[in-house]
């Protein structure tokens, strides 16, 4: 060592800790015994965190539920997984005030791992932080199927009642003579969780708290009848306070043996059931019936009006053939015809709504149709509106009338344009939707199937809920007088319905609207060689201006409307035909017999008294199988064609028609 240098020193201190170690071992042993006692106590026990995840479960409860503790992980099991039925509503209803704890006794059923119900009683303890946040819960669980044999019958009866009380789909509350709630079941707390909780029930809140303010007088009257022990008290339909979209029906029943005092005896039992779904279905049914009735009315008016228009248009044509353009009356006659044609356009819209117009469906790919239509849409909406057409991939084919479908899209685009006077975005998109994907939509009428969906979406002003319910009704419009007929969307509705599809509208005021059209996917059926196509009739062709429409054939004209029959006879006679007329099917047979069957072609209305057109065709085919026939009608061809034999061939001319169209269809059918 160096002189003067300090050397480090080490010191050890020894102490006997045998007694302390023994105390620790005894502590751990006592703790192990306590845990063992807790695990194997005759009662179950579990703890759960703020999210309802079970963090601890004792062996007794695990055995009852069939949970393997060796594989149990804290937080892996949720309380909602082991509580059956509406029991969670009872559990959630127990809440502690900030910075306190609260104890509650709850009778409910647990669900074992095998799916069996286990009736238990919870001694439930909840806590809350000073900030009011939920804390962990600790719960003692008593098995209500175990106990002394002497009380087995009573215990079984109690379990059955509790199960019935808490498992019934109806909310139930016992009410004292002051209208205060004495007790409720789990569905009651679940149904009215936004209005009252368990604390409110424990404070004996009045039952009219859960009844809409508008209907409290009606409930008071019903409750008064219950106090008087009256039977057959009318139910009360009301709304959930704070949520006018949910409908509730209350039934108030008197308690025959209640004392009606200040004690715990009920003076009345009140049952409640949510009727939101029922109300929606009733509204849907009423709207459907209303639309059907209006459609029948519109179709009937359109049919009758078509006859009038046909007579006006043909009379105008006859006048025009006798007046030169230089004649002073020529412009007036043209004005009459032009306005008659405008009226005919309105009638077609009525027929479209009533689904009684003639459609010429063909198999189409909507991608091609919308691509061809895009330029027209762009011109219609103008430069202030950004048009986007989003084509879905590999669209399924659909079977629609291309002209009518284009009219639907154009009409929706024009409405969208009018809803965006300051400009905006208009998006037309298409996509396939499978039957499974239909479930994602909240449309009650939509039947699950494969569809091609066409969406027309705008960023306009939107549609108010009260208006949204009426947009497809004919003559309903929000536009100024003279700015719209109210037939546009009703026509769209009718075309889509007649095609076999569905149309719905989702809208929010200030954000815009989306119209969704669901068109059924078309799956082609294999046909044999030479088998006729879908359409049984030959459509009326557009006349070639240079084509000779004169003829010398014998025509039997059958029409119950005198003006239409006279106009048709003059029109065909002026073209050189020999025309014999009849006002009904029966008279037509008589005329046919009187002519000895020497008739080249029959032109007949469809709807007539005594004998209609299809029946007349059937009778004439018995006498002359190859008779040539033309139907004229204001209704759709499909309405009667499906009732004819598959091999029936005929021409069809929709009303109203002009002199030229009548002569053209007669000439075409004679030459076919």
In summary, what is this structure?
With 672 residues, the protein is of the alpha+beta class.
Describe what this molecule looks like in 3D.
The chain is of the alpha+beta class. The protein contains 19 helices and 24 strands. It has a 6-stranded antiparallel β-sheet. A 6-stranded parallel β-sheet has the order 19-24-23-22-20-21, with helices on both faces. Strands 8-7-11-10-9 form a 5-stranded antiparallel β-sheet. A hairpin with a 5-residue loop joins strand 4 (101-111) and strand 5. The longest helix is centred in the middle third of the chain and has 46 residues, at 276-321.
Provide the domain count: 4
CATH homologous superfamily of the largest domain? Histidine kinase-like ATPase, C-terminal domain
The helix fraction, in percent, is 25-40%
* CATH topology type of the largest domain: Heat Shock Protein 90
Radius of gyration: 40 Å
What fraction of the residues are assigned to beta strands by DSSP?
Answer: 15-25%
DSSP helical segment count: 19
CATH class categorisation of the largest domain: Alpha Beta
Uncertain segments are 258-264, 481-486, 528-545
Q: From the helix content, strand content and strand pairing, which structural class follows? A: alpha+beta
CATH architectural name of the largest domain: 2-Layer Sandwich
Topology, number of strands: 24
Shape: elongated
Mean pLDDT score: 79
Read across the widest sheet, the strand sequence of neighbours is 3-2-1-6-5-4
Characterize the main sheet.
6 strands, antiparallel
Distance linking N and C termini: 136 Å
């Amino acid at each position: 060592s160096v002189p003067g240098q300090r050397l480090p020193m080490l010191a050890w201190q020894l102490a006997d800790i045998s007694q302390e170690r023994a105390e620790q071992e005894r502590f751990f042993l006592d703790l192990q015994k306590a845990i063992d006692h807790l695990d194997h106590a005759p009662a179950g026990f579990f703890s759960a965190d703020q999210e309802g995840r079970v963090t601890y479960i004792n062996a007794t409860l695990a055995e009852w539920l069939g949970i393997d503790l060796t594989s149990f992980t804290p937080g892996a099991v949720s309380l909602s997984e082991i509580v059956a039925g509406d029991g969670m509503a009872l559990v959630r209803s127990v809440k502690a005030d900030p910075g306190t704890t609260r104890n509650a006794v709850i009778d409910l059923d647990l669900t074992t791992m095998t799916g069996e119900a286990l009736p238990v009683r919870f001694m439930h303890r909840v806590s809350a932080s000073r900030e009011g946040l939920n804390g962990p819960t600790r719960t003692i669980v008593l098995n209500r199927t175990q106990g002394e044999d002497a009380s087995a019958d009573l215990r079984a009866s109690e379990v059955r009642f509790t199960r019935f009380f808490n498992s019934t789909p109806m909310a139930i509350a016992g009410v004292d003579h002051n209208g205060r709630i004495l007790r409720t079941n789990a569905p009651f707390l679940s149904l009215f969780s936004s209005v009252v909780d368990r604390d409110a029930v424990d404070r004996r809140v009045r039952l009219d708290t859960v009844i809409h303010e508008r209907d409290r007088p009606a409930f008071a009257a019903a409750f008064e009848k219950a106090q008087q022990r009256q039977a057959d008290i009318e139910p009360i339909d009301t709304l959930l306070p704070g949520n006018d979209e949910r409908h509730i029906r209350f039934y108030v029943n008197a308690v025959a043996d209640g004392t009606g005092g200040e004690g715990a005896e009920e003076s009345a039992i009140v049952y409640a059931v949510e009727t939101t779904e029922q109300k929606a279905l009733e509204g849907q049914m009423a709207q459907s019936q209303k639309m059907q009735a209006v459609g029948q009315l519109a179709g009937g008016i359109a049919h009758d009006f078509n006859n009038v228009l046909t007579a006006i248009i043909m009379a105008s044509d006859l006048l025009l053939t006798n007046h030169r353009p230089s004649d002073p009356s020529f412009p007036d006659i043209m004005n009459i015809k032009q306005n008659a044609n405008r009226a005919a356009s309105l009638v077609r819209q009525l027929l479209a709504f009533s689904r009684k117009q003639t459609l010429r469906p063909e198999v189409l790919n909507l991608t091609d149709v919308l691509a061809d239509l895009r330029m027209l849409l762009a011109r219609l909406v103008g430069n202030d509106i950004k048009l986007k057409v989003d084509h879905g991939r590999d669209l399924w084919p659909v079977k629609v009338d291309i002209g009518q479908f284009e009219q639907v899209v154009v009409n929706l685009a024009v409405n969208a344009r009018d809803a965006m006077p300051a400009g905006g975005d208009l998006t037309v998109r298409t996509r396939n939707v499978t039957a499974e994907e239909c479930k994602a939509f909240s449309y009650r009428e939509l039947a699950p199937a494969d569809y091609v969906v066409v969406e027309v979406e705008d960023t306009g002003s939107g549609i108010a809920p009260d208006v949204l319910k009426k947009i497809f009704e004919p003559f309903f419009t929000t536009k100024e007088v003279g700015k719209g007929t109210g037939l546009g969307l009703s026509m769209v509705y009718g075309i889509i319905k007649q095609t076999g599809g569905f149309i719905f509208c989702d809208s929010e005021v200030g954000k815009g609207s989306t119209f969704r059209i669901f068109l059924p996917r078309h799956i082609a059926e294999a046909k044999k060689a030479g088998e006729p196509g879908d359409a049984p009739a030959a459509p009326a062709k557009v006349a070639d201006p240079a084509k000779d429409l004169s003829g010398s054939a014998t025509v039997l004209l059958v029409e119950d409307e005198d003006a239409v029959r006279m106009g048709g006879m003059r029109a065909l006679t002026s073209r050189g035909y020999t025309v014999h007329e009849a006002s009904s099917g029966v008279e037509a047979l008589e005329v046919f017999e009187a002519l000895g069957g020497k008739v080249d072609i029959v032109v007949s209305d469809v709807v007539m008294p005594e004998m209609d057109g299809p029946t007349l065709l059937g009778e004439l085919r018995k006498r002359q199988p190859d008779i040539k026939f033309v139907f004229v009608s204001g209704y759709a061809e499909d309405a009667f064609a499906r009732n004819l034999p598959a091999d029936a061939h005929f021409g069809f001319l929709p009303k109203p028609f002009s002199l030229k169209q009548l002569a053209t269809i007669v000439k075409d059918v004679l030459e076919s």
